[in-house]
Specification:
Elements (H helix, E strand, L loop, with lengths): L1 E14 L4 E10 L3 E9 L5 E10 L7 E4 L13 H7 L7 H16 L12 H11 L17 H6 L6 E13 L4 E10 L3 E9 L4 E10 L3 H4 L18 H7 L7 H18 L1
Antiparallel strand pairs: 1-2, 1-6, 2-3, 3-4, 4-5, 6-7, 7-8, 8-9
Length: about 270
């Protein structure tokens, strides 16, 4: 057994002493060491600073730092994707875009713990908003008639005052013999915890896959791991995120499971070259 590649992505949202929001994402892996930051107005989520830095990259080709001044004043929320792509684009191999996108995800998830400040009078009003906005987007929101509905209300009841959200995604590629790779991945945030293990042949084709949730908002989320079986016989290293999302159930799957399997696919692709 030989470990060939590792990656860890950590993102968080914190409240600063000046009552601003600081969203950060760091990537530390066999090939990269990088970080991104968004400094936001506490109530409006308007961006006040958007910065990134890459301290290590293959051959140093993407090393450097920058600030996306064009994003100042833009709301860091669900519909920011087109602005991020337009203002940051494929600079430095697309890594700054990835870092800042992860920062936005951390901001959106942090909203659960600052409902009154965001204009939601009660946790119930917040839950109703998300039930409508995310309807049919994942296993949970495609099966609202089956969920008990208590998770978000219970979590929103505690008003956090320092760190609003944390998320960690890790991946490790292991050589198993001469003709097989085993890729293990983990996803852990304030609401979810899941693990996936996928075995690939030397060409990158899936020969075995399994996964499970350790924590999830509802038992219905657990059902999404059954879609992993659809990866069997597919070349994971040739699939993009959209391909993976389709196989893993689309609106009947889990977006976090898709993120994790995509991280696994990227790790395997890097090892294959």
């Amino acid at each position: 057994m030989e470990i060939l590649y590792q990656s860890n992505v950590f993102s968080s949202t914190k409240i600063t002493r000046e009552r601003q929001l600081l969203a950060e994402c760091s990537i530390i892996s066999t090939d990269y060491d990088a970080a991104g930051q968004l400094l936001l107005d506490y109530h409006s989520y308007r961006i006040e600073e958007a910065r990134w830095e890459i301290g290590r990259s293959p051959g140093g080709q993407h090393n450097g730092s920058g600030e996306a001044l064009e994003l100042i004043g833009v709301e860091a929320y669900l519909d920011i994707g087109s602005s991020l792509r337009a203002k940051v684009g494929s600079e430095r191999g697309g890594l700054p875009l990835e870092l800042l996108s992860e920062c936005v995800k951390a901001v959106v998830q942090a909203e659960t713990f600052m409902l009154l400040d965001r204009g939601y009078p009660t946790p119930e009003a917040y839950e109703e908003h998300w039930d409508k906005m995310y309807l049919n987007s994942c296993r949970y929101y495609s099966n609202l008639h089956r969920v008990d509905g208590g998770y978000w209300l219970e979590n929103a009841a505690y008003r956090r005052s320092l760190c609003l959200f944390n998320r960690a995604v890790d991946c490790r590629v292991i050589r198993v013999g001469d003709d097989c790779y085993s890729v293990a991945g983990g996803f852990c945030d304030s609401a979810h915890e899941l693990s996936v293990l996928i075995d690939l042949d030397r060409e990158g084709t899936v020969i075995h896959g399994a996964g499970n949730f350790l924590r999830a908002p509802d038992d219905v989320c657990q059902e999404s791991v059954a879609h992993i079986a659809k990866l069997m016989g597919r070349n994971l290293t040739e699939m993009n995120k959209k391909d993976i999302g389709g196989l893993l159930g689309g609106g009947q799957g889990c977006v976090h499971l898709v993120d994790l399997v995509y991280a696994i696919a990227r790790g395997a692709k890097i090892v294959r070259g």
